[in-house]
Design a protein that fits this description.
globular, disordered C terminus, five-stranded antiparallel sheet, binds calcium ion, eight-stranded antiparallel sheet, single chain, 13 strands, mainly beta, about 5% helix
Length: about 400
């Protein structure tokens, strides 16, 4: 039986991928001890935020699937193409290519709802190392119901149809060259996707994140935390109520990065995730001190295997983030009657405590001329009450 690549006539093939934006993901493979319960690093998995680190079997959580453990993902753009590269912990024993489904999900209008899903199953199955359309599919959401009523939050039950439009199926679609995939076996292993800019309407600002998934693998069930009750999904940490992992299983995804747009407060972004960590000591290219979600990787203009192992050694244990929220309080309050808190009592910022009463001399009145009576702190310095939001108690 012929593969799709043998029957589809192509006129445009992706060449010369380059990568300029990088997302790190938790390295669970380094924490695996054969025969023992697998526990990802703290903060790597949360049903509440639809973030998963489950590259192992459900239930006993002892069987590790190294080709489902995402280590990092890179995105780049060149000519009419976007390029994605996912680094995976390793291959499974006695396999020639990664065995799962691998995908990039994109939120084009940045409303917290994914809009486009480009995926490949069993990439590199033919062993050629070349870009192919076999196993590649592209989905869109025609009615904007990914995420149910509340994007970025679990709200069940879900009665929508999620990604309901398949616009490319292994070369079948209005453009037979729309999307491609290939794989590079090894440790780490790489899966690469390439798709035309036209797929996302030549959009230059969007949010993206990636998946490795063999346990659920259902584009019609996104977001998974809208389709699986917490009690059915299970949790991965022994201390959690719904431990162990159950129906949401055998998959991994990443936090999100903004392509072409300035930072925002979107909680799905890596830079807003207090658990986001980056491997040490040095990411590829020797960059240090740069924003973690926007590190530029050295562009690779050759389709050969990247020199990943030589330039970057993941730390054995994902560490707590090397950065925190960089929120800086407003300048030190001065005891003027007009002082009011200026920071919004937003969800992600603590409220400013009331300023202390003035203790210094009143300008224009020498200290030794001050009356002996106690200066009563002026009661008019009353901070504007915070709105009743998180952190404002
Ligand atoms: Ca991972
Ligand atoms: Ca959207
Ligand atoms: Ca939701
Ligand atoms: Ca839909």
């Amino acid at each position: 039986m012929s593969s799709p690549d043998e029957v589809v006539m192509h006129t445009a093939t992706p060449i010369s991928p380059s990568y300029t934006q990088l997302i790190y993901d938790c390295n669970t493979g380094d924490l695996v001890s054969p025969g023992n319960l697998i526990q990802p690093a703290p903060g790597c998995d949360s049903w509440e935020i639809n973030r998963y680190e489950r590259p192992f079997n459900q239930g006993s959580q002892v069987d590790f699937f190294p080709d489902l453990d995402i280590l990092q993902a890179e995105l780049g753009q060149a000519g009419n193409w976007y390029f994605l590269r996912i680094a995976l912990f390793d291959m499974r024993p006695d396999t020639s290519h990664p065995q799962g489904m691998y995908a990039i999900e994109m939120d084009l209008d940045m409303d917290g709802r994914g809009d486009v899903l480009v995926l490949v199953r069993n990439p590199g199955e033919d062993g050629s190392g070349d870009y192919k359309v076999t196993g590649v599919q592209v989905f869109k959401d025609s009615n904007d119901d990914v995420g149910n009523q509340l994007p970025l939050q679990p709200d069940l039950p879900y009665e929508g149809d999620s990604y309901d439009l398949i616009v490319f199926n292994q070369g079948i679609g209005s453009d037979p060259d729309l999307a491609w995939a290939r794989a590079i076996p090894g440790k780490p292993a790489f899966v690469e996707l390439a798709f035309k800019s036209a797929l996302i309407n030549n959009d230059v600002e969007f949010i993206w994140w990636v998946w490795a998934d063999q346990g659920v693998d259902d584009p019609a069930s996104f977001d998974y935390h809208d389709s699986f009750f917490h009690s059915d999904a299970g949790d991965v940490y022994q201390s959690q109520v719904y431990f162990p992992s159950n129906e949401i299983r055998e998959l991994d995804n990443t936090c999100a990065a903004l392509w072409g747009a300035p930072p925002s407060e979107d909680p799905s972004l890596c830079e807003n995730d207090p658990n986001y960590s980056r491997p040490s000591p040095t990411p590829p290219g020797g960059r240090t001190g740069t924003p973690p979600s926007l590190v530029s990787s050295t562009p690779s203009n050759t389709p050969t295997r990247p020199s990943f192992e030589n330039t970057w050694t993941p730390s054995p244990t994902p560490t707590r983030p090397s950065f925190e929220f960089t929120w800086t309080p407003s300048p030190t309050p001065t005891p003027t009657p007009t002082l009011t808190p200026t920071l919004p009592c937003g969800q992600f910022r603590p409220c400013t405590p009331p300023p202390p009463p003035p203790t210094t001399c009143v300008p224009g009145i020498p200290c030794n001329d001050r009356p002996t009576a106690t200066i009563t702190p002026t009661p008019t310095i009353t901070p504007t009450p915070c709105a009743a939001t998180v952190g404002c108690n």
